[in-house]
């Protein structure tokens, strides 16, 4: 009977410990640059130590914020998988440098497309473009 109680308590705690992303909406303000999010297919999200969600326009914008706020407690980081449109943890994603088109601007901006699948990332990348993991993305961005 003690084993059953231990199992139930452990399962309950584990279920409560999992963190899920909140849907990022077009028009939400990016925590990093304060610009409106125009394309949720490249959006990202940080869940802070208090489990509050904060949206970002792109993985690069979130990486710049994380790099500049290394002392902030973070529970989870999510990016949108370009293939499925679902949020995935950054440690499970592959990143490909790309140009993101910005509404109302002639030119796009350099950023990253995120993929859950390495095969999808490989198929998306042009030529010899690198496939990066999250620590490489953070190291690659400039504040």
Give a nutshell description of this structure.
This protein has 143 residues and is an alpha+beta fold. It has four helices and six strands, in the order αββαββββαα.
Structure overview:
This protein is an alpha+beta fold and 143 residues long. It has one domain (2-140). The protein has helices at 2-17, 59-68, 118-124, 134-140, and strands at 44-48, 53-56, 74-80, 87-89, 94-100, 109-115. Helix 2 (59-68) packs across helix 4 (134-140). The chain is globular.
- Estimate nothing, just give the exact number of structural domains: 1
SSE pattern, N- to C-terminal: HEEHEEEEHH
The span between the termini is 55 Å
Global structural class: alpha+beta
Question: What's the structural blueprint in terms of helices and strands?
Answer:
Elements lengths: L1 H16 L26 E5 L4 E4 L2 H10 L5 E7 L6 E3 L4 E7 L8 E7 L2 H7 L9 H7 L3
Antiparallel strand pairs: 1-2, 1-3, 3-4, 5-6
Helix pairs in contact: 2-4
Q: Which descriptors would you attach to this protein?
A:
single chain, alpha+beta, 6 strands, 28% helix
């Amino acid at each position: 009977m003690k084993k059953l109680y231990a199992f139930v308590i452990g399962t309950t705690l584990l279920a409560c410990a999992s963190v899920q992303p909140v849907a990022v909406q077009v028009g939400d303000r990016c925590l990093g640059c304060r610009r409106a999010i125009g394309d949720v297919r490249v959006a990202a999200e940080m869940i802070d130590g208090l489990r509050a969600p904060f949206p970002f326009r792109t993985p690069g914008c979130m990486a710049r914020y994380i790099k500049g706020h290394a002392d902030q407690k973070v529970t989870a980081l999510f990016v949108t998988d370009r293939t499925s449109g679902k949020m995935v943890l950054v440690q499970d994603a592959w990143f490909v440098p790309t140009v993101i088109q910005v509404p109302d601007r002639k030119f796009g901006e350099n950023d990253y497309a995120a993929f859950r699948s390495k095969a999808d990332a490989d198929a998306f990348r042009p030529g010899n473009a690198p496939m990066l993991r999250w620590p490489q993305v953070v190291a690659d961005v400039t504040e």
